[in-house]
Amino acid sequence: MISYKEKGKRIDAIIQRMRRSPRNVRYADIARVCDAYFGQPRQQGTSHRLYKTPWPGDPRVNIQNDQGKAKAYQVRQVLKAIERMEEERGH
Questions:
Q1: What is the distance, to the nearest Å, from the Cα of residue 62 to the centroid of all Cα atoms in its chain?
Q2: Residues 45-72: b if buried by 16+ CB within 10 A, e if exposed
Q3: Is residue 1's pLDDT more than 50?
Q4: Which residues are within 8 A (CB) of 67 and not within 5 positions of it... i.e. 6 or more apart?
Q5: What are the CA-CA distances from residue 84 to residues 4, 53, 65, 81, 89 (Å)?
Q6: Cα–Cα distance between 36 and 1 in angstroms, integer?
Q7: What phi, psi does 49 have (nearest 5°)?
Q8: Structure pTM?
Q9: How confident is the model over 70-82, as a mean pLDDT?
Q10: Mean pLDDT along residues 23-28
Q11: What span, in angstroms and rounded, lies between the C-alpha atoms of 21 and 33?
């Protein structure tokens, strides 16, 4: 079993890779990051996962499995949502 501290380090490492190269992110990795930040997805379809965000407006993050990879524009959207959450938390 992975400790919370180890899990956090893994998530941070994935986020750093996402920032360096949003075009080459595994779908499983972005799903792991989204689960950690946004909780369980509201919807899990065949190729899409939909997450709720804590702010009003367009309160969702959508990721799509594209042959085992995440779409680059969705990686950038996830990173932007994470940054917003961290800003609002004061981190």
A1: 9
A2: eeeebbbebeeeeeeebbbbbeeebbbe
A3: no
A4: none
A5: 23, 10, 24, 5, 9
A6: 16
A7: -130, 135
A8: 0.84
A9: 95
A10: 94
A11: 15
